[in-house]
């Protein structure tokens, strides 16, 4: 059983490790875009773009990525008009800043987002204190090591800000981040990237995403992530299919190798086992067992042993790897 | 349906190996056993008693000659058909009993019927009846947990379950030491 269980255990461990390496887009929807129906990434490109379902921008045929710097930022009104009446756009602006805290000068990511807005629900988890509401109030991620009530000086504004809460960014729980209400820290707009969380009356379909792509906009839509269009359509291909041939070939090779290894390791053991049971099999034959019956008995033996060894082994290591991966992801990202 | 004789060997020969190493275990034996008849085969060690019983019970086929069990010539049967014949028409009670150690008494008795495709529940019912007939009250014990006499009773019950209860049916009882064989249910 060990001879079967061990390779199966190793293989299921490796498979689980790689399978859980990436978080699927639909699993991280709330982390990435809260309760919004769509997220508009960055300024417009100067030209039509082609994007993946997850918002990756495709290289064109020459391998040249469209240049975002040629584009421009959009105003809230422009965005609302793009998504139609009844839509609401909430900005999420990010940059980098230094700060002077109790332990001296440090640097951190800084994000301006209104955590009181229900559209941001799920993006951050409040660990202690409260979310910032006014200018001069900030929340920090746990890795900054600051407690509510601490005062720091942000180098961007050269003014003091009070830590009022500790929030964990759900997408990157270990990330160093300062969260401030909109327009309080990144007012000068230097090196700032803006994403818009858009709340629309109706789901944003893939057709709408492509329409916005033609205006140079990259949009991640909740509806599209939950129900992606079939990849590789002739007229409107969604680039970046989930499966590629290389991956399938690699997986098939891996499975083949494991099966071969199990056969090489456990095969001789089975052969010895059958030799040892020759007398018993002969007795069954004397009682009227035909060659087919004996084959079935040996096969059932192997299947029972194989299942008893491999199923718990696979379950054990898959579970173990998933747990390890989860805790590692939480700790490292 | 009854047959007379139940077992017929006509000039049956069994040679093991070939060339200079060939061993003539049985040379031109002819034998007829009638239904209900008790036949004892006796002879010194190596005289071919076991080979004779192996041929008569369909465990082996003759090199030449013919073996007929209940009107069926064994030489014309395939391996699978001979196995079916062993399950349905022939029963062995070996001298050293040869119970399967990994099966309980009831399972040992059930085995031929189960191999024959009878459902486990029915096979078990028949096995329990057969074991009750020979007076064994611990059907769920393994052979190791039974006394010598109990094991012997299991071995005797084994050819019986579901068998046609015709008084003419004949069951050879082989023993490697070649002491006796007899009708169904007889102790070796």
From TrEMBL, chain A:
The chain crosses the membrane at residues 248-274, 294-320. It comes from the Bacteria. Keywords: Membrane, Transmembrane, Transmembrane helix. This is Uncharacterized protein. The lineage of its organism: Bacteria, Bacillati, Actinomycetota, Actinomycetes, Streptosporangiales.
TrEMBL record, chain B:
GO terms for molecular function: ATP binding; ATP hydrolysis activity; transmembrane transporter activity. Pfam families: ABC_tran. InterPro entries: AAA+_ATPase, ABC_transporter-like_ATP-bd, ABC_transpr_LolD-like, P-loop_NTPase. Residues 7-187 form the ABC transporter domain. PROSITE patterns: ABC_TRANSPORTER_2. One of its GO terms (cellular component) is plasma membrane. SUPFAM superfamilies: P-loop containing nucleoside triphosphate hydrolases. Keywords: ATP-binding, Nucleotide-binding. Residues 140-188 are annotated as: Disordered. PANTHER family: ABC TRANSPORTER RELATED, IMPORT ATP-BINDING PROTEIN. This is ABC transporter domain-containing protein. The lineage of its organism: Bacteria, Bacillati, Actinomycetota, Actinomycetes, Streptosporangiales.
């Amino acid at each position: 059983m060990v001879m079967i269980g061990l390779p199966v255990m190793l293989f299921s461990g490796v498979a689980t490790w790689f399978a859980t390496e990436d978080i699927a887009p639909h699993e991280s929807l709330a982390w990435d875009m809260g309760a919004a129906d769509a997220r508009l990434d960055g300024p417009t490109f100067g030209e039509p773009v082609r994007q993946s379902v997850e918002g990756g921008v495709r290289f064109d045929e020459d391998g040249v990525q469209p240049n975002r710097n040629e584009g421009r930022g959009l105003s809230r009104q422009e965005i609302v008009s793009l998504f139609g009446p009844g839509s609401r756009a909430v900005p999420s602006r990010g940059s980098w800043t230094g700060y002077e805290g109790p332990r001296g000068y440090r640097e951190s990511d800084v994000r301006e987002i209104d955590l009181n807005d229900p559209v941001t629900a799920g993006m951050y988890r409040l660990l202690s204190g409260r979310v910032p509401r006014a200018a001069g109030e900030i929340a920090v991620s746990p890795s900054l090591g600051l407690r509510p009530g601490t005062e720091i000086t942000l180098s961007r504004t050269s003014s003091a800000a009070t830590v009022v809460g500790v929030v964990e960014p759900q997408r990157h729980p270990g990330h160093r981040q300062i969260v401030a209400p909109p327009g309080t820290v990144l007012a000068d707009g230097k090196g700032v990237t803006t994403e818009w969380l858009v709340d629309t009356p109706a789901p944003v379909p893939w057709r709408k995403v492509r329409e916005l792509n033609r205006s140079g906009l990259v949009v991640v839509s909740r509806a599209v992530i939950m129900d992606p269009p079939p990849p590789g359509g002739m007229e409107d291909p969604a680039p970046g299919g989930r499966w590629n041939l290389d991956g399938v070939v690699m997986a098939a090779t891996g499975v083949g190798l494991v099966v071969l290894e199990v056969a090489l390791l456990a095969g001789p053991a089975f052969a010895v086992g059958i030799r040892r049971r020759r007398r018993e099999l002969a007795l069954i034959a004397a009682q009227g067992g035909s060659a087919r019956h004996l084959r079935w008995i040996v096969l059932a033996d192997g299947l029972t042993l194989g299942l008893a060894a491999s199923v718990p082994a696979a379950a054990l290591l898959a579970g173990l790897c998933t747990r390890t991966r989860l805790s590692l992801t939480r700790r490292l990202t | 349906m009854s047959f007379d004789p139940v077992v017929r060997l006509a000039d049956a020969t069994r040679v093991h190996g070939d060339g200079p190493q060939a061993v003539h275990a049985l040379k031109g034996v002819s034998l007829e056993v009638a239904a209900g008849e008790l036949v004892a085969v006796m002879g010194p060690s190596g005289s071919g008693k076991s080979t004779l019983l192996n041929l008569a019970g369909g465990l082996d086929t003759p090199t030449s000659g013919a073996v007929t069990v209940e009107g069926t010539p064994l030489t014309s049967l395939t391996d699978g058909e001979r196995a079916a014949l062993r399950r349905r028409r022939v029963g062995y009670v070996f001298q050293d009993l040869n119970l399967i150690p990994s099966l309980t008494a009831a399972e040992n008795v059930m085995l031929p019927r189960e191999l024959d495709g009878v459902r486990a529940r029915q096979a078990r019912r028949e096995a329990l009846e057969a074991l009750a007939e020979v007076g064994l009250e611990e059907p769920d014990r393994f052979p190791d947990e039974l006394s010598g006499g109990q094991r012997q009773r299991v071995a005797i019950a084994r050819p019986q379950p579901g068998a046609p209860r015709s008084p003419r049916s004949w069951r050879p009882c082989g023993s490697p030491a070649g002491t006796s064989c007899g009708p169904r249910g007889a102790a070796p």
